[in-house]
From TrEMBL:
Subcellular location: Membrane
Name of the protein described by the UniProt record: Beta-lactamase-related domain-containing protein
Transmembrane segments: none
Domain Beta-lactamase-related span(s) in chain numbering: 78-379
Phylogenetic lineage: Bacteria, Bacillati, Bacillota, Bacilli, Lactobacillales
Alphabetic keyword roster: Membrane
Main subcellular localisation: membrane
One Pfam entry name: Beta-lactamase
SUPFAM superfamilies reported for this sequence: beta-lactamase/transpeptidase-like
InterPro entries: AmpC-like, Beta-lactam-related, Beta-lactam/transpept-like
C-alpha cells in the first residue's frame, strides 16, 4: 500500500515538473514571438518571395466625423492653411509650445473606403525618424560599458570590407563608405536582416569619412546591439522605449493587425499627379517591413513620437553628457549625428519618406517646442519638410 502511494506521489511530482516545463517553454516562446515579429512557427523566411502577398494597412477603428475644434484650434488651423495648402495635406499635425500641445489635428482620410478620417490618434510609419531611437538604444550600451564609440566595426563583423576603418561613431554619423544595393526579397528575422546586410554590403574607400545618408549603417548597428546585449532589437525597443514611456500608439509595422489607428498609406498613379484622390493604396511588401529593421519599421502617432523625441533630448535615456556626445556632429558637413540633423538655431530636425508615407519633425534643443507632421499620402513634389520648417519658425517667433 505504501509503495503504491509513493508511486502515485512520484508520478504526480514528475507530471507537475513536465507541465511546469511546458508552461515555461510556452511562455518563453510567446515572449520571443512578441519581441521578434518573425519568430513564429509561421515564419516566412523560407517561402519564395512571389508567395509573400503585400498587405495594405487598414485601421481597425475609424472616426467618420472630425471632432469639433476649440476656438484657439480653429484660429491655428486658419493660420496653417496658407502653409499646408488647404486640403492638400493628409495626415496629422502636432504643435507643442513650452512642453504643452497647442494643436493636434488630423487632415484627410485614414482610410477612404471606410470614410474614416485622420485624427490625433492616427498612427503612421515614422520611417527614417526611427533612427534617433536606434542611436539612443546604442548609446545606452555605451553608457553601460558594453560598447565604446571608438570600437571598430571589425570587432563585431570582421568580414565586412573596410570594417577595420570605421568606428561605431562614424556609423552613427553616416561617414563610412558603406553602400548596399540589393535587399532581401524574403521576410527575415532581426538577425537575418543584419546577416543579409553584412554579406551584401559594399565599401567605397574613397567615400570613407565623407557623409552620405546610407541606412545600412543603422542596420549593422542593430546587429551590434543584438550582439552586445544578447537580445533582439525588438526586445530592446519594447523594453527601453515603448514600455519605459508607456506608449499606447506605437509598434512595429509587421504587427499592423494589432494597431487600432494605423492609417492606410496612399500614392498617386501617375506619380506626377499631385492631387489627393485616394485612388491607389500603397502595398508595402512583408520583406521590406523587415528590411527596415532599426531604420524605419516603427509606427507611432504624433503624440507618442513627440514623447520619445523629448525624452531623448531631455536625457531620460542616458546622461546629459552622453546625450550631448551622441548628437555631436563635429566634422559632419550635414550636421547629422545620432539620427538627428542639427538646426542653425540650436534645434534638431528629422525626415522620413517611403511606402506611401512621409514624416517630418522640428524640435528645440530642450525638447519643449516642436512641430511634427506625419502623413499617409505620398506625393512626388511634396513640400512637407519645408512646411514643417516654416511652421516651426513661426512657432519660435511667437506667431502661435
Amino acid at each position: 500500500m505504501k509503495k503504491r502511494l509513493w508511486r502515485v506521489i512520484l508520478f504526480g511530482f514528475i507530471l507537475m515538473i513536465l507541465i511546469g516545463s511546458a508552461g515555461f517553454g510556452y511562455h518563453n516562446y510567446r515572449v520571443m514571438q512578441r519581441s521578434d515579429p518573425i519568430f513564429s512557427s509561421g515564419s516566412t523566411k523560407h517561402i519564395p518571395a512571389r508567395k509573400l502577398v503585400p498587405k495594405t494597412f487598414v485601421p481597425r477603428k475609424v472616426v467618420t466625423q472630425q471632432p469639433k475644434l476649440s476656438l484657439k484650434a480653429k484660429k491655428l488651423k486658419q493660420l496653417l492653411e496658407p502653409l499646408i495648402g488647404g486640403d492638400q495635406f493628409v495626415g496629422t499635425i502636432l504643435i507643442v509650445k513650452n512642453g504643452q500641445p497647442i494643436y493636434d489635428q488630423g487632415y484627410g482620410y485614414a482610410n477612404f473606403q471606410k470614410q474614416g478620417f485622420n485624427t490625433a490618434q492616427s498612427e503612421y510609419q515614422i520611417l527614417s525618424m526611427q533612427k534617433s531611437m536606434t542611436a539612443t538604444l546604442l548609446m545606452q550600451q555605451v553608457e553601460a560599458g558594453r560598447l565604446r564609440l571608438t570600437d571598430r566595426l571589425a570587432q563585431f563583423y570582421p568580414n565586412i570590407p573596410g570594417a577595420k576603418k570605421m568606428t561605431i561613431r562614424s556609423m552613427l554619423n553616416m561617414t563610412t563608405g558603406l553602400r548596399i544595393h540589393n535587399f532581401s526579397t524574403r521576410s527575415l528575422s532581426g538577425s537575418g536582416v543584419v546577416d543579409y546586410a553584412a554579406h551584401h554590403v559594399q565599401f567605397l574607400p574613397n567615400q570613407n569619412h565623407k557623409w552620405s545618408y546610407q541606412p545600412v549603417n543603422y542596420t549593422l548597428l542593430a546587429g551590434v546591439l543584438q550582439r552586445v546585449t544578447h537580445q533582439t532589437y525588438y526586445q530592446l525597443f519594447n523594453q527601453h522605449i515603448i514600455r519605459l514611456l508607456d506608449l499606447h500608439h506605437s509598434g512595429f509595422v509587421m504587427l499592423a493587425k494589432r494597431a487600432n489607428w494605423l492609417s492606410t498609406p496612399y500614392h498617386n498613379q501617375p506619380f506626377s499627379d499631385d492631387s489627393a484622390n485616394y485612388l491607389h493604396a500603397f502595398h508595402e511588401s512583408p520583406a521590406n517591413q523587415h528590411n527596415e529593421l532599426a531604420t524605419g519599421n516603427v509606427y507611432m502617432n504624433a503624440s507618442d513620437f513627440y514623447k520619445v523625441s523629448r525624452a531623448i533630448l531631455q536625457a531620460r535615456f542616458v546622461s546629459v553628457e552622453n546625450t550631448q556626445i551622441l548628437h555631436d556632429a563635429a566634422g559632419n558637413r550635414k550636421g547629422y549625428a545620432g539620427g538627428l540633423y542639427h538646426e542653425k538655431n540650436g534645434g534638431y530636425w528629422s525626415h522620413g519618406v517611403g511606402y506611401g508615407e512621409e514624416s517630418g519633425m522640428m524640435i528645440s534643443g530642450d525638447g519643449q517646442n516642436a512641430v511634427i507632421m506625419l502623413s499617409n499620402y505620398r506625393r512626388k513634389d511634396s513640400m512637407l519638410k519645408q512646411q514643417c520648417h516654416q511652421i516651426y519658425q513661426n512657432l519660435m517667433q511667437g506667431m502661435y
